[in-house]
């Protein structure tokens, strides 16, 4: 397991080289952080980074954005969400690659984790329609949970709603999450 100094160093590295960060609290109360969780321990993902293919996927983003524009508009209308916000999240999460997979196991356009997909009835995270629908519903629920506070909802989408609550309903002090919130708000035109 990596020390806290190592984790802080990882957080300072550019997003292209960053890793997902997991936290484990041992029975004796000691806290461990790692980018390589061991099986058999109850690690919690606390920072999720982009898929490894993100830099490459940016080259195809314009075409993929056009390809999925109607699907995104349909999900936005169905769940009464702003399609511009969905586009901002998708661009930040996957650069519109429906096959993107993060090292933590987040999948698809909206980078759904297995538990989030299950929570929203997504049976195939690789299916673009199911992925966008589930991600849209999750984002809508986060907005409701955080009283329409866009920054907190976006932070919750990246770091999990528990992290936002843990830090007294503020954007968690994780560099990756703070950068993510700024990026999504800038893409959305609200930053």
Automatic annotation (TrEMBL):
Superkingdom classification of source: Bacteria
Keyword field contains Signal: yes
SUPFAM superfamilies, per the entry: Lysozyme-like (SSF53955)
Family: Belongs to the transglycosylase Slt family.
Domain DUF4124: 8-43
Tagged with keyword Zinc: no
Keywords carried by this UniProt record: Signal
Protein name per Swiss-Prot or TrEMBL: Lytic transglycosylase domain-containing protein
Sequence ranges assigned to domain Transglycosylase SLT in this UniProt record: 71-168
Signal peptide span: 1-18
Matches recorded under InterPro entries: DUF4124 (IPR025392), Lysozyme-like_dom_sf (IPR023346), Transglyc_AS (IPR000189), Transglycosylase_SLT_dom_1 (IPR008258)
